[in-house]
Amino acid sequence: MMNYSVRFGVGILGTVFALIMYSTSITTFKRVIEKKTTESFSGFPYAIALLNCLIYTLYGSPLISNGWDNVVVMVVNGIGALLEFFFVCIYLTFAPPKSKRNMSMMVVGLLLLFGTIAISYFCAVHDHKHRKTLVGTAGMVTTVILYASPLSVIGLVIHTKSVEFMPSLYFSLFAFLGSGLWMVYGALSRDILIMAPNIVGIPLGLGQMVLHCIYRHKRSPRVEAAKVDAGQELKSMEQNIKDDIKPYTEDIEKA
């Protein structure tokens, strides 16, 4: 009973930290909406976060876990899936055409992957232990990718000497703290499929914070140049569109 209470308390703290981590992206997408562009932000972390939340919502449900033992896992990931869905929709609304196309293909592919996992769970695998292993292993892989995804722009960070296009410091901080709590939760639950990916998540979260500490207060001219280039590209695209439709508008005016 004592172990259950401690485990449940750790799970509640992990849930709070996870929700704070998810909510830190609200500032990023507020900026996207205000500027009506995703600039150089990558949509990959949000797409993989959506898949991760969907998988762990299934994993924490009574369909996979022993009754309601992992209800905190189900609840936090259910809320996270909803938030990430809205983030992905906003990204697709304001991303440039090429990024929008790539992001759309990625999201469709990841949703098909989740569908395959779910269908395999219900139709192909009939033993409960193997079902749990299937879904848990998929969740473990996506969790590691999720924690590592902000580092996908490490080349851009080093090149521009700016963390402007990385998730915020608070995201990295709460990812780091959350990893520690969920690792403890997995250990208390004796669930290696929850514990293992968070062991990996701790150094990955720490690496993100190190990058923030090094480059956080540096403003590189390269970042501003990239923004200017992006702005000029958008203006050029707009002018090309106007030129393309000009003959049709002239015909309409003559008519």
Low-confidence stretches: 226-235
- The SS-based structural class is mainly alpha
Fraction of helical residues? over 70%
Strands, count: 0
What is the helix/strand order?
HHHHHHHHHH
Q: Return the average pLDDT rounded to an integer.
A: 80
Major sheet, described briefly? none
Oligomer type? single chain
Strand content: under 5%
Tell me, what's the shape? globular
Over all CA atoms, what is the radius of gyration? 21 Å
What does this 3D model show about the protein?
The chain has 255 residues and is an all-alpha fold. Helices cover 82% and strands 0% of the residues. The chain has 10 helices and no strands. It has helices at residues 2-23, 25-35, 44-60, 71-94, 97-124, 128-148, 154-160, 169-189, 192-215, 221-254. Helix 2 runs parallel beside helix 4 (71-94). It is globular, with a radius of gyration of 21 Å. The model is unreliable at 226-235 (pLDDT under 50).
Layout of helices and strands, plus pairs?
Elements: H1 2-23, H2 25-35, H3 44-60, H4 71-94, H5 97-124, H6 128-148, H7 154-160, H8 169-189, H9 192-215, H10 221-254
What would the keywords be for this entry?
mainly alpha; single chain; 0% strand; 255 residues
